[in-house]
Amino acid sequence: MNKRQWLRAFAALAAAGAASAATAQSGPAAFPEQGRVIRIVVPFAAGGGVDSAARLLAEQMRKLLGANVIVENKAGASGTLGGRFVQSAPADGYTLLFSAATQVHTRQVMKNPPYDPQADFAPVARVGEAPLMLVISPQQPEQKLADVLKSAGAKPDAWTAALPAFGAPSHLATLLLAREGKVSFTYVPYKGTQPALVDVAGGQVQLLLDSMISLLPMAKSGNVKPIAITSTRRSPLLPQVPTVAESGLPQFAYASWYGLWAPRGTPPDRVAVLNKVANAAVAELVRSGAFASLGIEPVNETPEQFRQYIAREVAQGAELLRSSGFKPE
Is 283 within 8 Å of 11 (Cβ atoms)? Predict the structure, then answer.
């Protein structure tokens, strides 16, 4: 589906979602009730990519629902602090989790996970996905992915890869790149993207594969060298950077994504209302260009489609982690 078709489809969805929201608010069992606040919990610090996407979504949902929709940041414990807060909240649709793909791999990367991300949450909507970008230290002479893989194959000890978070798309995509490129990297864990990015810029580590929007400012400034992006087509935000598929690994594609969850046991009719309103909000964010400015491509799925997508993601991630010898911490 091309961009024009996306816009037409999402415009129709916006109208349907707004109508559904209005219907949902009438009658004795209205949801949301007048005066009630819907809280969207982001399990990461304010100002990051996940937080920015959540705030855009919340504002549009507020307009469609005619209710107060606010974002609360509850960062810590690799995103599980906020997740645990939502899991423990009443299953009434008024407390939601907005997170990235990292959320669904909690059981694969933690020895003692505080919850089961598949069993303890009700999927509401997957709202968007975004490419990752591979950057290397500007001190490295390589200019193309083929050069990086050739060098890493010849001197594996000379190539270290930064990992901002275990189980995150950056981690899994880096493992996939190593496997598909038939190379080995030395992995260095970090507490977040920014410290990892600083060390790549300084040459302490050689490469980082992470959310494109997070790496874009330093890539544009020349502080790190952009090599390739993981989507199936080039990004208009940095069109001169080729895809990994263009660069010699034709089957390679990987995306970060964003989703909305409710606590397990939330009534299906409320999940359905929230799904329709979230999808309609995304339609408006596409129309206005707000999602495009973050490099996010829209997704339109039902709760059941989102559930099935999660199951596939978990299976793929578990296999990648297992085959790489990763041990939960």
Answer: yes
